[in-house]
Amino acid sequence: MTHKNQTYDTPWKEIIEFFFPQFMAFFVPGSEEDIDWGKDIKFLDKEFQKLTKESVLGQRHTDKLVEITLKCRNHAQE
Q: Which of 16, 19, 66, 78 gives the lowest tally of CB atoms within 10 Å of its CB?
């Protein structure tokens, strides 16, 4: 990815973080009902970069990596 592409990519990734509930509702309809929004949402992009071999070569950009908590559902009652 060129520097120019990285520059354009960053604002979109920031928007995804800021509007994550709306992002999920739009792009994965119904998923917002399964997510426990009372729990912290963790964006793990930096942690993901540390796991890749290329990360030792300098700054790298990755897609969003998000840790969420799902609601517990009792499937026996459904």
A: 78
